[in-house]
Amino acid sequence: MDDVAIARAIHVLAVVLWIGGVGMVTTVVLPAAVRRGSTAARLAFFDAIERRFAWQARVSVLLAGASGLYMVARLDLWSSFLSADYWWLDAMVAVWSIFALMLFIAEPLFLERWLRARALRAPGPTFALIRGLHWLLLILSLVTVFGAVAGSHGVSFFD
User: Fold this and answer.
1) What's the pTM value of the predicted model, to 2 decimals?
2) How far is CA 34 from CA 75, 92, 139, 157, in A?
3) C-alpha dihedral sign at 106, 141, 54, 52
4) Collapsing DSSP states into helix, strand and coil, what is residue 35?
5) 77-124, pLDDT tens digit by residue?
6) Which of 8, 39, 65, 120 has a C-alpha 20 to 30 A away from that of 114?
7) Residue 150 CB partners (closer than 8 Å, separation 6+)
């Protein structure tokens, strides 16, 4: 059995679940939440869905990180991080780090409470901030996925 092929399959599956979920939250859930009547209804709707997705995202981020690290170590790809042709490796680590920090540190420690309190004081601007940040993260993620797939199949962006 090819351990790298298995690691790659786990990596791709984890990324599909994770970034696909971010896409769903960004393009479907947040717009639906904003259309709810009261701030309390918006928060309840968003919380109900986000809480369920948070566990999927946490598991997916852990699997993507572990499988990615395994492949880099197993294939000795460390020097690739220093090459502009492999910019997408650095982008993958950066995007992964942002999500890992958000999911495992910022949200549980302070961000969730801060956003809830802010939404109760200023619901419109708070939901606009949440939507804007989700769009930014989704776009960064999709650019990274595009670069990784194209780059790992031989496309050079710097020729």
Assistant:
1) 0.91
2) 46, 30, 21, 39
3) positive
4) coil
5) 999 999 999 999 999 999 999 999 999 999 999 998 998 899 889 988
6) 65
7) 88, 157
